[in-house]
Write a structure and sequence with these properties.
Butyryl-CoA Dehydrogenase, subunit A, domain 3, about 55% helix, globular, Butyryl-Coa Dehydrogenase, subunit A, domain 1, Butyryl-CoA Dehydrogenase, subunit A, domain 2, alpha+beta
């Protein structure tokens, strides 16, 4: 399989890297993280102008019809810059919406940057004509205009699109360890209308596989930064009058980190490519990719901090924030044990 980017994908990757270099340097990111909203409206508008929000939207709804492979360089660049915008949650939500007529009507607004989405993983209950229950750790829910909520009824599980400020919805918002915004959401008598149902359990499973594949791509970017910044540190930090990178034992460790990066990149590419295949193959491939990337994220994040010494955990260095992001990525959409269980069940 050829993992090289096509000419169009390379041009897109270059454009995204220029964007994050100019609009998302680490110091500016700190201000965004500390802001009341936890994201940048200006950066979001730029993403829309660059066509990044339209990229995965079908061509018939104002988008470019991009695949998960087309999104891979975008997410990799975002992972490298530790972008905190609700991009992944919105484009995953767009995929979930695309299968229903009512949901598809929202896609143009997503492509134009006028609609932000968040999706829950923990189902609530359908009672009468409303939703009841609590769903926890919904990433980017405080920033979302609409929420995708899974809910169980006697007929099975369905997905519903509801307004984030609908009567009966209460959010307990907080900042996660890796500086994203999330919320625990209580739903009490949230009324459903015709057209709110956008899919079933198969749509949710497909969406979570898509989210996992994109997370793998984002993790590659974070791993790439951890490797690059650690290599730079080994070249500049001196001990006994020479750069510490001159010591063979440390050379072996940095080489192992870059091997982990290349393996992670290959598996992320494979996971994104699998999203175009059948559901059984897709599920196994995505689970295997997440399992491998969990391992790479753990090894590289720990090594990067250790090789930086005590400075590796300081707030001033981006590597400590990358360590936290990679740690959280390992848990999101299922950790190593969850992926092994899924592979064993298949």
């Amino acid at each position: 399989m050829n993992f090289d980017l096509s000419e169009e994908q390379q041009l897109l990757a270059d454009s995204v890297r220029r964007f994050v270099a100019q609009d998302y340097p680490f110091e500016k990111r700190k201000a965004i993280v500390d802001s009341a909203d936890g994201y940048s409206a200006a950066a979001w508008a730029t993403m829309a102008e660059l066509g990044l929000l339209a990229l995965p939207v079908p061509t018939g709804h104002g988008g470019f019809g991009g695949t998960a492979l087309d999104l891979l360089p975008v997410l990799e660049a975002f992972g490298e810059a530790l972008v905190v915008e609700p991009y992944a949650s919105t484009v995953v939500g767009a995929r979930m919406l695309a299968g229903s007529a009512e949901g598809a009507n929202r896609l143009a607004a997503i492509a134009e940057g006028r609609l932000k989405l968040a999706f829950a993983q923990e189902p609530v209950a359908v009672r009468g004509e409303g939703l009841e229950g609590t769903t926890r750790v919904v990433l980017h829910a405080p920033q979302a205009d609409k929420l995708i909520i899974p809910a169980r009824a006697s007929s099975g599980l369905s997905l519903y699109l509801v307004d984030a400020k609908a009567p009966g919805i209460t959010m307990r918002a907080y900042r996660t360890l890796d500086e994203l915004r999330a919320a625990d959401i209580d739903l009490r008598g949230v009324r459903l209308a015709a057209g709110d149902r956008i899919g079933d359990e198969a749509v949710l499973r497909d969406g979570l596989d898509y989210a996992t594949a994109l997370l793998c791509a984002e993790a590659v970017g974070a791993i790439k930064f951890a490797c690059a910044t650690t290599l730079d540190y080994l070249k500049t930090r001196k001990q006994f009058g020479v750069p510490i990178g001159a010591f063979q034992a440390l050379q072996h460790r940095i080489v192992d980190m870059f091997i982990e990066l290349e393996q992670a990149r290959s598996m992320a590419s494979l996971a994104c490519a699998a999203m175009a295949g059948d559901s059984a193959t897709r599920g196994r491939t995505v689970a295997a990719a997440k399992l491998r990337i969990c391992d790479a994220a753990e090894r590289v994040s720990k090594e990067s901090v250790q090789l930086h010494g005590g400075m590796g955990m300081s707030e001033e260095l981006k590597v400590s924030h990358t360590f936290r992001r990679l740690t959280m990525m390992r848990q999101l959409y299922g950790n190593e044990d969850a992926q092994l269980a899924r592979l064993a069940a298949d």
